[in-house]
Please model this.
Amino acid sequence: MTSKTIASACFISVLAAIVPGLAGCSSTPAKVDTGAIAARSFSFVNVGPAPPYAENRAALHSAIQQAITRNLAAKGLPRATAGRGDVTVGYLVIIGNNASTTSINDYFGYGADAMALAEKAHKVSTSSENPNYFEAGTLVVDVIDTRTFRLLKRNYVVRPLLRNPSAEVQQARLQEAVDEALKDLRITF
Model:
């Protein structure tokens, strides 16, 4: 075996440990599916203007929102052009390695779920017995009823992070991750 093959096998074993751990039982579920969702349009969580000291993540959010918008449009659910859609989509990005975890919850909302999910991912990734360095990204996507604020769908996907991918590779991998996270989403009109 080459060192690249061994490193890949080690990383896959770490991902295999992260995925079931993130889905484990707790008061903050990592997966929710209430069945088919009746909606005619969607909007993203409204977070208001970013404070002047905030990191500039506009490119990241634009890419994620484009991928989600493409996926939902293909299912017949367009983004609301004005106001709020029938459902609200929130997303959380969690980036972790053997030692630390960072979450980007700008478009996830201000509830306790973001912190609980990040803590769950951190606990799973830092408790691995694998001594090799790894980096993984987790994307959590929520679909919420805009009127009742009831969580209708939550799913997540974990992917290894690439070092310096081209913009095309990055967008393709992001679309693939969004498509996997929303693959079981069913929309009725």
Notes: Residues 3-22 form the longest helix (20 residues). Residues 1-21 have pLDDT under 50 and may be disordered. Helices lie at 3-22, 58-74, 113-126, 167-181. The domain at 3-188 is CATH 3.30.160 (Double Stranded RNA Binding Domain).
